[in-house]
């Protein structure tokens, strides 16, 4: 283990990357553009869609963002996790519809596999192959050994549930049980004998699906009995990157609501004049700052090889999930009569926050895991 660097490891390169991401999203993903893109149809009977700008995704790839944390030996840039956190935070602040966060989660899992086939998949991600995890069972368990997919003779059978950005992905990293335990397998989205069934979710900037495998061909990434260990090793990074996305969305909600409170006049006073508005907004700011500190600390701990990475990551996700709910509810409330309307941009970020809130376990789930780690499991 090495000593943590100053500023959580945000050196000159990481700071420049964050500034670059901020400018990219400001130029290409304004709230009105994103709203017009994903919220063009307010009908409750609208079809389940997967809307994203593939040309922007290609620009993201050309900027090297998919390769940012991939080791140089596998064709990546080899930057620390804090670099991906910086990008994820800005992506959340713009509610960027893309498979970027899902691809990061798959990247961390593939890195934990440490096999030739996993390294080849990482090289493909570096050149733009969108990849997502299919590791959850029907009950929505995030435990690494819980899967409804089985493997035999190099083929997968069963269903993976709650697969993020499934219709944007080119490939799936699937956990499956064999005779000797859980392994990880790579499946092409265009492979025969798989069905991608879209789920209806509230987040308009993402899509979700469950995937049925019927003796589908696959490539082994981690052998039986090793796959669940690779997932466990990747979980701290996965929780950290999702929490970073929530930090960005929370900052947008705070900034937008604060600006509205300055300009909206009620009883001959700006809304921000009233303590019932200004004090909760300060609490939102404090909540976001606490979350950001925990997220940055988690990423830095992972980069530094500390032994408390899972503890730090679950603390970050717990705080981030609570912050997501609080920042969203205050934004809706303080926008008053327009806050809950379809035309108000707030609902895009509200829904993204609510989806992230439960993704890989909500705050209560994370605190239960933390209690088990710190106090010990109940007999």
CATH class of the largest domain: Mainly Alpha
The side-by-side strand order for the widest beta sheet comes to 1-4-5-8
**Largest sheet, described in full?**
4 strands, mixed
Going by CATH, the homologous superfamily of the largest domain would be Butyryl-CoA Dehydrogenase, subunit A, domain 3
Compressed to H and E, one letter per element, the order equals HHHHHHEEEEEEEEHEEHHHH
Given the C-alpha coordinates, what overall shape results?
globular
Tally of separate helices: 11
Rg estimate, integer Å = 21 Å
Structural class: alpha+beta
Number of domains: 3
Give the averaged pLDDT, no decimals: 93
CATH architecture of the largest domain: Up-down Bundle
What is the number of beta strands? 10
Low-confidence stretches: none
Q: Give the proportion of residues in helices.
A: 40-55%
What can you tell me about this protein's structure?
With 379 residues, the protein is an alpha+beta fold. It contains eleven helices and ten strands. It has helices at residues 12-28, 31-38, 54-62, 81-94, 100-113, 116-126, 227-263, 275-303, 309-334, 346-358, 363-374, and strands at residues 131-134, 149-152, 155-164, 171-178, 181-188, 194-199, 208-217, 219-222, 265-266, 269-270. It is globular. It starts with 11 loop residues before the first helix and ends in a 5-residue tail after the last helix.
């Amino acid at each position: 283990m090495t000593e943590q660097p100053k500023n959580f490891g945000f050196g000159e390169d990481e700071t420049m990357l964050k500034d670059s991401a901020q400018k990219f999203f400001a130029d290409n993903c304004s709230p009105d553009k994103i709203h017009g893109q994903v919220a063009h149809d307010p009908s409750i009977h609208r079809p389940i869609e997967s809307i994203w700008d593939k040309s922007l995704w290609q620009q993201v790839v050309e900027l090297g963002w998919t390769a940012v944390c991939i080791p140089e030996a596998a064709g990546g840039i080899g930057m620390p996790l804090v670099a991906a956190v910086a990008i994820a935070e800005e992506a959340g602040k713009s509610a960027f519809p893309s498979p970027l966060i899902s691809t990061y989660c798959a990247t961390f899992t593939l890195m934990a596999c440490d096999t030739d086939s996993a390294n080849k998949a990482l090289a493909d991600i570096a050149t733009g192959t969108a990849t997502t995890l299919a590791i959850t069972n029907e009950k929505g368990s995030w435990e690494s050994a819980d899967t409804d997919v089985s493997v035999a003779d190099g083929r997968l059978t069963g269903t993976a549930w709650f697969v993020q950005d499934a219709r944007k992905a080119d490939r799936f990293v699937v956990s499956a049980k064999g005779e000797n335990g859980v392994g990880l397998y790579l499946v092409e989205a265009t492979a025969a004998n798989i069905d991608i069934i879209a789920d209806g979710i509230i987040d308009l900037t993402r899509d979700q699906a469950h995937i049925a495998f019927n003796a589908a061909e696959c490539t082994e990434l981690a052998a039986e009995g090793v796959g669940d260990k690779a997932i466990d090793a990747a979980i701290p990074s996965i929780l950290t990157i999702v929490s970073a996305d929530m930090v960005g969305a929370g900052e947008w909600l705070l900034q937008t609501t604060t600006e509205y409170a300055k300009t909206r006049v009620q009883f001959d006073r700006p809304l921000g004049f009233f303590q019932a508005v200004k004090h909760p907004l300060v609490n939102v700011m404090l909540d976001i700052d606490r979350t950001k500190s925990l997220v940055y600390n988690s990423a830095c701990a992972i980069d530094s090889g500390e032994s408390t990475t899972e503890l730090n990551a679950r603390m970050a996700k717990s705080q981030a999930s609570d912050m997501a709910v609080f920042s969203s509810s205050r934004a809706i409330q303080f926008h008053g009569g327009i806050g809950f309307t379809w035309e108000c941009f707030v609902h895009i970020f509200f829904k993204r926050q609510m989806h992230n809130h439960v993704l890989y376990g909500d705050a209560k789930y994370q605190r239960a895991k933390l209690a088990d780690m710190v106090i010990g499991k109940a007999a």
